[in-house]
Write a structure and sequence with these properties.
41% helix; two-stranded antiparallel ribbon; 447 residues; 18 helices; 3-stranded antiparallel beta sheet; mainly alpha
Length: 447
């Protein structure tokens, strides 16, 4: 739809922007933008003035009344779904129809709110999908999963736009602790969610199986796939009877949402855009600790607005992080923040307290004994081996073994390889002992 082309992004894109494009799109405020390298993309082409699409006088082109519910017969749904060009294999059935009715009729208000909120999040998600060569329709999973609420939490403790569980989030590299939950960060969670979808598609090679695995978990889905008859096609519709109710309805709900996203006006769905005071937003990466109160003091930004733009912050405190945190502020407030807080924007590559408190023990070096008649053999540690018995067998001292292997203490670990230097004639007797099964340790090997 035309208003999505003008979408206000919730978070700035992290890639470099094209200056020529930026000038053409932002001549009205270009002169006031910072040129500091700290700003991620203050004039990215993904930004736009929200007033361009916040048109409260919008009227449906088909002349439907504002509160009219518009539904169609099966033949129309079937024909329209078939006309949608998508990498997802769209199908129409009774389940899909029931979800079209639900989103277009019983939950019409929710659908309109989701369509409006999508202008805050979808521009960045769409860019990620393009960069990863994935279908654009996957962005609609966020409507099915969380109704586009970054703070949403399920009964199974899945969190955020993409409803990511704790273990999955940690596996995908998201930070989750008492102060910061990146599952609630639309920026970081979208990166993680899309990478997860990409990994799942590499596993299954089928988009509906991928989406089912996203909802049900790959381990559970694999168990269900085992139950399919050997001569059955390995696809979602074959495995669906073996899935729990939630996952059985997940794919039909997704198909219905894809359909309604493409045919909003035909169903009299009028996006309800969120009320925001800012015209556009920008991000800056900060590395030191700062509280919301300090940010408010330095910028004058409203606290509710600050929390809305940074939902991953749990205790009104942004902790210090080596990798930094992407603070989101209205563009008009960002200039003041950067000027007042230059220390926060510099990455601390060295911690001075390390030099003041570190007690350094120089690492030992392996000692290689002199002697032309010595050869090195490798002894692999097995359970029960000790340096004392090993030294007695090889005719050396415990101190020799520790020096040859740069050991700090005599404690051994199973599987370690010890370097041992012995006279060449001794190695021949060891080989003879091993051959006659008189060798009390695993046979050493020369190196």
């Amino acid at each position: 739809m035309h208003f999505f082309a003008l979408a206000l992004i919730f978070l700035a894109a992290c890639t470099n922007f094209s200056k020529d494009k930026s000038v053409s799109l932002h001549q009205a405020h270009q002169k006031n933008m910072l040129s500091a390298a700290y700003l991620d993309s203050a004039t990215s082409e993904l930004f736009a003035h929200h007033t361009a699409y916040y048109d409260t006088s919008y009227r449906n082109p088909y002349g439907f009344g504002e509160r009219d519910i518009v539904l169609y017969p099966d033949s129309i749904y079937e024909r329209r779904i078939a006309s949608i060009s998508s990498a997802l294999p769209l199908a129409y059935n009774e389940q899909v129809k029931s979800y079209i009715d639900m989103y277009a009729f019983r939950k019409k208000d929710l659908t309109e709110r989701m369509l409006g909120k999508s202008v805050l999040y979808y521009p960045y998600i769409e860019r990620l999908l393009r960069e990863n060569d994935l279908p654009q329709e996957l962005k609609l999973l966020t409507m099915i999963e969380s109704a586009l609420r970054p703070t949403a939490k399920s009964s199974k403790s899945a969190v955020g736009l993409w409803q990511i569980r704790y273990a999955t989030g940690k596996w995908l590299g998201l930070t989750v602790n008492a102060y910061l939950d990146e599952r609630r960060d639309p920026y970081a969670s979208s990166e993680a969610g899309i990478q997860y979808l990409k990994k799942l598609y590499d596993m299954y090679g089928d988009w509906w199986l991928t989406i089912a695995a996203y909802n049900y978990g790959p381990r559970n889905l694999n168990k269900a796939l085992v139950k399919i008859e050997a001569d059955s096609i390995r696809d979602y519709w074959s495995v669906a009877p073996h899935l729990p109710r939630e996952t059985r309805h997940y794919v039909p709900a997704m198909i219905a949402m894809v359909y309604l996203y493409h045919f909003q006006e035909e169903h009299n769905l009028r996006p309800r855009f969120p009320e925001v005071s800012f015209r556009s937003v920008d991000t800056v990466r900060i590395y030191d600790r700062i509280t919301f109160d300090e940010i408010i003091q330095h910028t004058g930004v409203d606290k509710q607005e600050l929390a809305f733009l940074n939902p991953a912050i749990l205790r009104d405190v942004i902790p210090a992080r080596k990798q930094g945190y992407r603070l989101v502020l209205p563009v008009g407030k960002m200039t003041r923040f950067v000027k007042n807080n230059p220390r926060l924007l510099k990455k601390n590559t060295l911690d001075e307290t390390v030099f003041a408190t570190a007690q350094v023990i120089k690492g030992k070096k392996e000692v290689i004994p002199e002697g032309d008649d010595l050869i090195k053999v490798i002894h692999t540690i097995r359970q029960g081996n000790t340096l004392d018995e090993i030294s007695r067998y090889y005719g050396c001292t415990v101190q020799d073994l520790m020096a040859w292997n740069a050991l700090y203490d005599p404690v051994l670990q199973i599987g370690w390889d010890l370097k041992i230097y012995i006279p060449q004639e001794q190695s021949q007797s060891l080989e003879a002992s091993a051959a006659s099964n008189q060798f009390p340790f695993p046979s050493p090997h020369s190196e």
